[in-house]
Amino acid sequence: MEANIEQRCVDCESGKISYFLTRKPVKNVNLRVKSDGSVLVSANNSVTTEFVDAFIKQKQAYISSALTKFEEKRKLMREVPKRYVSGENYTLLGKNLRLKVEEAKEETVHTDGVYIFLRVKDKNNFHHKEIMMDRWLKEYQMIIFKELVDEKYALFQKYNVPYPELRVRYMTSRWGSCQPKRGIITLNSQLIKVPRNCIEYVVLHEFAHYIHPNHSRQFWDFVSVMMPDWKERKKELEKSI
C-alpha cells in the first residue's frame, strides 16, 4: 500500500467502520463509499486523524445506508441457478423474457423479443442446455455491445480516437473500463440486462476517457456535450441492477 494511504477503524453506534485515509492537497475532507464496500476519505496533511475519525462518526448514517444499498444490489446480481426449463425468466435490455424449451431435430437458440426459444434434441440433458444458453448469451452480448460501440465510435472519429478492442467480462464494482493507451474498452457482462440507452451511456463514458483520461470537470463537461441527458441515463442504470 502506498505510504500516503492509511487504513483506520472507528467505533460508531452502528458498529465499526473501516476506512482508507489518503493524504492529498485538497481543500475539504472528501468522503466516498464504493460499490465494493470500501470507504475512502481524502484530506490534506493539516487535518488531524482525530478530526477525520470524528467526521466518519458524523457521517456514519450515510455510510451505513450506502453500504446497505450496495449489498442489496449485490444480492440481486446473485441469480438463482438456472435449470433451463420452460418458464424461467431472463432479463435482456431491460425486458423480462420467458424461456421456452422445445424438442427439435435442429438445435438452435433465438429470441423474438418476448420469448427465448431453446430447441434441443434432448430436453432432459441439463449440461447440454447450459452450454447452448451460455454460448448464445455471450454471442448476444457481443452483438449488442459491438453495435453500440460502432454507433458511439462514429461520434469520436473526428477526435482521431482509434477503434477499440472490445472485451466483455463480469465485474463487481464497475460498469466498464477504458485503457486508452492500449486501445481497449471493457464492458461488464451484466450490462446486457439493462435498457439499451443505459448501455449507450456507459459506452460513451468509456470513449470519453480517450479525450479526458480522468473524471475531471472537463471530462463531465465533455460527456454533457456528447450526451446531454447522461445523468438521467445513469440514474436509470443504477436502478436497473
Oligomeric state of the chains in view: single chain
* CATH homologous superfamily (4th level) name of the largest domain: Metalloproteases ("zincins"), catalytic domain
Rg, please?
A: 22 Å
Q: What is the number of independent domains? A: 3
Named CATH architecture of the largest domain: 2-Layer Sandwich
CATH topology of the largest domain: Zincin-like
How would you characterize the largest beta sheet? 4 strands, mixed
Number of strands: 11
| Strand adjacency order, main sheet | 1-2-4-3
- What would the average pLDDT be, to the nearest integer? 92
Model description:
The protein has 241 residues and is an alpha/beta fold. The model has no long low-confidence stretch (mean pLDDT 92). The chain folds into three domains: 5-77, no CATH class; 89-141, no CATH class; 144-240, Metalloproteases ("zincins"), catalytic domain (Zincin-like, 2-Layer Sandwich). The protein is 39% helix and 26% strand. β10 (176-179) and β11 (184-188) form a beta hairpin. α3 (126-156) crosses α4. It has helices at residues 49-58, 60-77, 126-156, 196-208, 217-226, 230-240, and strands at residues 5-12, 15-23, 30-33, 39-43, 89-92, 95-103, 108-111, 115-120, 165-169, 176-179, 184-188. The protein is built from six helices and eleven strands. It is globular and about 75 Å long. The two termini are 32 Å apart. The protein has a four-stranded mixed beta sheet, covered by helices on one side.
